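Appendix B: complex inputs.
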Amino acid sequence: MALIDLANPTRFLRLADRVLPWLAAATVLAFAVGLTQAMNAPDDYQQGATVKIMFLHVPGAWLGMFGWTVMSVAALGTLVWRHPLADVAGKAAAPLGAAFTFICLVTGSLWGRPTWGTYWVWDARLTSMLVLLLLYLGVIALYWTAEDPNRGSRAAAVLTLVGALNLPIIKFSVDWWNTLHQPASVLRLGGSAIDPSILIPLLVMAFAFTLLFVTLHLATMRNEILRRRLRTMQMMQAQALAEAGA
Amino acid sequence: MNLGPHADFIIVAYAVTAFVVAAMIAWVVLDHAALRRMLGDLEEQGVTRRSRRKDEA
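Resulting structure:
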């Protein structure tokens, strides 16, 4: 099957039905391994056992940003090629990205209290992450409240591309400004600053969360295609009833 | 496993994450079931999409 064939919603639904059970099983397996490693990881010499919160917080942050990246690519597909499946992908990713950003903010806050002495501080990293959550909520509102779905999709795509400017701000905020949040310690020049005994569980958990995102994104895309079919059929039924009554 | 003096923060972080993940999964599964049911009801009433009629012709 050529990649372009997947752009057909019916073929995409068939593929999703076939692939989803395998993806779900792989996600459960990855979480079983990741959580076992996370629970058995040694305490940090400074932070103690609170370092275990990192196994949730960091994947949450990565997937919050990954979700917006997926939406940005989809927004280009919506605005440039006007492809309906691109719009489906963008709309389906928004609530998932918002949920992972929420996980990042809440777990970060719970990690911050014992390590920094505060749940929240208005520094550049935390604030730009909160802005990402608000952008997600704005896009979700545009998708779900627009009377004309096509206009709502275009408006959401434009907001998504404008909001993509926030991604490098989040990434480099710890370098550009003086922040309470630590600088990059996993993805950085010169290699990771984290000991392998903690880095490996973190990477396995990040892989498990990524599989979860991919699985849920495929499932929400399938639901969105079905929702659009339902809308079309309901309009056809209403039209038929109106013609019968005339 | 000893979670130390800040065990409450660790447990709440894992509980909140588990709740959010479970809520996402439940939303997706329940939404899928409801959409399938509504589409089935419409098809039973004889409403079919134009592209499907074309496929069957």
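Chain B touches chain A through 33 residues (CB under 8 Å).
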